[in-house]
């Protein structure tokens, strides 16, 4: 089965220590769980080794400067209203993407 070629990638830049406004759990975890509940195609959380945000404070994983607030990027299909309520500080970008993904057919089902 071939998925549609056009889609939107939502990329959310937050800090590792950011918390969800509704549940107080780690924000990246709350975003992924909410996306799963909404039956979105998928989500990926990436932990950065170094970065800075609007306050220009450097966050790094170097041993001598170990940060407890490393950069986190969550990539997901869009669900902006929930994000508006729960992301207090961060950067969210949306970009058009061309999706190239093939899945194997389920056994005993004819090809589409």
Summarize the structure.
The chain has 112 residues and is an alpha+beta fold.
Oligomer state equals: single chain
Please give the count of helices: 2
Please trace the helix and strand order, writing H or E for each element: EHEEEEHE
What is the CATH top level name?
Alpha Beta
Sum up the overall morphology in one term.
globular
| Tally of individual domains | 1
CATH fold-level label: Alpha-Beta Plaits
SSE-based structural type:
alpha+beta
Compute the average pLDDT: 77
Strand content: 25-35%
Total beta strands:
6
Strand arrangement within the widest β-sheet reads 2-5-1-6
Return residue spans where pLDDT drops below 50 for at least 5 consecutive residues: none
Helix content: 10-25%
Walk me through what this model shows:
The longest helix is centred in the first third of the chain and has 11 residues, at 27-37. The chain has a four-stranded antiparallel beta sheet with strand order 2-5-1-6, with helices on one face. With 112 residues, the chain is of the alpha+beta class. It contains two helices and six strands, in the order E-H-E-E-E-E-H-E. It is globular, with a radius of gyration of 17 Å.
Map the helices and strands.
Layout: E1 6-15, H1 27-37, E2 43-47, E3 50-51, E4 59-60, E5 71-76, H2 80-86, E6 91-98
Antiparallel strand pairs: 1-5, 1-6, 2-5, 3-4
């Amino acid at each position: 089965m071939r998925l549609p070629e056009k889609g939107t990638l939502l990329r959310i830049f937050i800090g590792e220590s950011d918390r969800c406004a509704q549940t107080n759990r780690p924000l990246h975890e709350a975003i992924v769980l909410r996306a799963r509940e909404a039956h979105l195609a998928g989500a990926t959380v990436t932990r950065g080794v170094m970065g800075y945000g609007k306050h220009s404070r450097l966050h790094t994983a170097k041993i001598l400067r170990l940060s407890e607030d490393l950069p986190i990027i969550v990539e997901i299909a869009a669900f902006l209203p929930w994000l508006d309520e729960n992301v207090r500080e961060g950067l969210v970008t949306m970009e058009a993407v061309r999706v190239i993904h093939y899945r194997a057919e389920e056994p005993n089902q004819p090809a589409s």
